[in-house]
From TrEMBL, chain A:
GO cellular component, one term: ATP-binding cassette (ABC) transporter complex
Family: Belongs to the ABC transporter superfamily.
Entry-linked PROSITE patterns: ABC_TRANSPORTER_1, ABC_TRANSPORTER_2
Swiss-Prot/TrEMBL GO biological process terms: quaternary ammonium group transport
All copies of domain ABC transporter, residue ranges: 6-236
Descriptive protein name: ABC transporter ATP-binding protein
Keywords: ATP-binding, Nucleotide-binding, Transport
Gene Ontology terms, MF aspect: ATP binding; ATP hydrolysis activity; transmembrane transporter activity
InterPro entries linked: AAA+_ATPase (IPR003593), ABC_SmlMolc_Importer (IPR050093), ABC_transporter-like_ATP-bd (IPR003439), ABC_transporter-like_CS (IPR017871), Mo/tungstate-bd_C_term_dom (IPR008995), P-loop_NTPase (IPR027417), Transp-assoc_OB_typ2 (IPR013611)
Automatic annotation (TrEMBL), chain B:
Protein name (Swiss-Prot/TrEMBL): ABC transporter permease
GO cellular component assignments: plasma membrane
PROSITE patterns in the cross-refs: ABC_TM1 (PS50928)
Domain ABC transmembrane type-1: 56-248
PANTHER family assigned: INNER MEMBRANE ABC TRANSPORTER PERMEASE PROTEIN YDCV
Transmembrane segments: 56-79, 91-114, 120-141, 185-210, 230-251
Domain of life of the organism encoding this protein: Bacteria
Length: 355, 263
């Protein structure tokens, strides 16, 4: 646990008979940005609130900086928190809000003033100190909330879906801003979101949660490219799931949509005739034959959607619809629905979903 | 459309006459103390009466004490119920409505029976004890107004998130109450306070039956013995009540404005 700054050990939380978080373990390094990603009701916010101290775990412990904080009150944990609903104090100015934590900590007025000015610079609102929250837009309010949470130099910064109330454009710019500030200050951060794009673009590591459990913990690259479970594969990114049958386990041959592909030794030890689910990302599939791709299946184009820089094509492969993305090129005409088409892929890109 | 507008104005005029005529009559009568001309003699007579000054001061002091105790009782209770015990709200609302259902005379007889000189807590045995008893009686009478005002104020802010935000910044309960919650419900608290003030200033039953020198019993005494002064006192009492209402309107302009909330 030596280089782990935030440690969550065997945490379980139940509200009456409903278990919300179970067997949750996580170690976060100092300065790391970790996201809890999952659908509504998966327990991610409850887990964050347990770290913050707003909820007490039924079982398990939380350590911050090596100290057991499980039974400490939120105001004794030295954490900073940003809420979805901004939660700025309406009776205080922006400067008053940012300086609140420092004032509570009994810091001298001069120090508070200088830290507030520093924070206002950091969030790029240097002239907004005397404004009230109602005079700010949603994005500005959330930046002030971020500055307020960071002003007292907390050990851990907790972000509870801070971007989900903002419109798309502000959300993208603010997530970049949050990540830049977090890196600049090197503050250990836990971010809760149900938006996979946010999690993938911002995090050092992602904890994908489902039904109160951590389904997988890994870097965005690992989570996206090597999902450990069927849920992770389906939740993160778009995925084509193709049902197949093991034809020859020793040779690694699997039958899909009437064709045969090789998946190497990944089905070794399994029985011939056993059904299995295979998954492929749309960007791993190409329309037509491509050099170096060992998987080739023929199907019928059912649907063509123009998405700007890419064209999404849905191909019927013996009853299973598979989506693939192809780059939009003004020089070549787009595929046409109803045409027969070959699709190719590398069997090494194919995921075998065991659970 | 035009006919509708006519009837609207007609009913409005009728309402205004219904409320204003008696007041105008009372005011006009209060100015007739000097024969043949309008004068403020009745007002001067009332204001110069040492009993007016004494009873009015007494009632003002009682009103201030009632407001302080009422705020200290109601604000933390309403806050706590909203934050931690939302299931208790209907019961609390029921309890705070009881003073509107139980007549003050029943309340005061209950007090006299419970706190008389031969009881376990003989509050009526001393002037101070009786004052305290009267003040708590006023707190009970003003409870429906104070609770509702504060509860409405709390409803307008996100109590839970603001509390959690303050807690995450290191604030304890006292700091949260004093620096975050109270300033944001101050206008509601002041509305409750002005209503309480108006109730206490004109209250008769509790003060008379507990035999305290309050403004209400003085109004009744003057009314029974003089001609013009009671009318002047009635106008003064109305002016105080309206002044309180006007202050509610004034302070509500200074309420912290709620920021835009996420949708």
């Amino acid at each position: 646990m030596s280089d782990q700054f935030l440690s969550i050990r065997q945490v379980r939380k139940a509200f009456g008979p409903t278990v919300v978080v179970q067997e949750f373990n996580l170690d976060v390094k100092q300065g790391e940005f970790v996201s809890f990603l999952g659908p509504s009701g998966c327990g991610k916010t409850t887990m964050l609130r347990i770290v913050a101290g707003f909820e007490e775990p039924s079982v398990g412990q939380v350590f911050i900086g090596g100290k057991d904080v499980t039974r400490l009150k939120p105001n004794q944990r030295n954490i900073g928190m940003v809420f979805q609903a901004y939660a700025l104090f309406p009776n205080m100015t922006v400067a008053g809000n940012i300086g609140f934590g420092l004032k509570v900590a009994g810091k001298p007025a001069a120090e508070i003033r200088s830290r507030v000015a520093e924070m206002l610079e950091l969030i790029k609102l240097p002239d907004f100190g005397n404004r009230y929250p109602y005079q700010l837009s949603g994005g500005q309010q959330q930046r002030v909330a971020l500055a307020r949470a960071m002003a007292p130099r907390p050990q851990v910064l907790l972000l509870d879906e801070p971007l989900s109330a903002l419109d798309a454009k502000v959300r993208v710019s603010l997530r970049e801003e949050i990540r830049t500030i977090q890196k600049e200050l090197g503050i250990t951060t836990v971010f809760v979101t149900h938006d996979q794009e946010e999690a993938l673009s911002m995090s050092d590591r992602i904890v994908v949660m489902y039904d109160g459990r951590a389904e997988q913990v890994g870097t965005p690259f690992e989570i996206y490219n090597r999902p450990a479970t069927r849920f992770v594969a389906g939740f993160v990114g778009t995925l084509n799931v193709i049902e197949g049958t093991i034809a020859d386990p020793a040779a690694g041959v699997v039958t899909i949509a009437g064709g045969e592909i090789s998946v190497g030794n990944r089905v070794a030890g399994r029985k011939a005739g056993e059904a299995l689910s295979l998954a492929l990302r749309p960007e791993a599939i190409a329309l037509g034959r491509r050099e170096g791709r060992d998987g080739l299946v023929t199907g019928t184009i059912r649907e063509v959607s123009f998405l700007g820089s890419v064209i999404r094509v849905r191909v019927d492969m013996g009853g299973a619809l598979v989506s693939l993305d192809t780059f939009n090129s003004p020089a070549s005409p787009p595929p046409v629905a109803g045409e027969r088409a070959e699709i190719s892929f590398s069997s090494s890109d194919m995921l075998i979903l065991d659970r | 459309m035009k006919a509708n507008r006519f009837w609207s104005w007609a009913f409005l005029a009728l309402g205004v006459l219904y409320f204003a005529l008696p007041l105008i009559g009372t005011f006009e009568f209060s100015m007739k103390m000097r024969r043949g001309v309008y004068s403020l003699d009745a007002y001067w007579a009332v204001l110069a009466d040492p009993r007016f000054q004494a009873t009015f001061t007494y009632s003002v002091m009682m009103a201030l004490a009632t407001i302080v105790v009422g705020v200290l009782l109601v604000v933390p209770t309403a806050y706590w119920v909203r934050l931690k015990l939302p299931g208790w709200r209907p019961y609390l609302e029921f309890v705070t409505l009881l003073p509107l259902v139980i007549p003050p005379i029943v309340i005061v007889f209950g007090y006299i029976r419970l706190y008389n000189t031969s009881s376990w807590l003989p509050l009526t045995g001393t002037a101070l004890g009786t004052n305290i008893l009267l003040m708590f009686g006023y707190v009970v009478l003003s409870l429906p107004y104070m609770y509702r005002a504060v509860d409405t104020g709390l409803r307008a802010i996100d109590v839970r998130t603001l509390t959690e935000a303050a807690e995450s910044l290191g604030a304890g309960w006292l700091t949260i109450m004093w620096r975050v919650i109270l300033p944001n419900v101050l206008v509601a608290v002041l509305s409750g306070a002005f209503l309480t003030f108006a109730i206490v200033i004109g209250e008769f039953v509790l003060a008379a039956l507990l035999n305290r020198p309050a403004f209400g019993p003085y109004l009744q005494l003057i009314g029974a013995n003089r001609a013009y002064e009671p009318a002047a006192l009635a106008v003064i009492a109305f002016a105080i009540t309206w002044g309180c209402m006007a202050l509610i309107q004034v302070v509500s302009r200074f309420a912290p404005r709620a920021p835009t909330q996420p949708h």
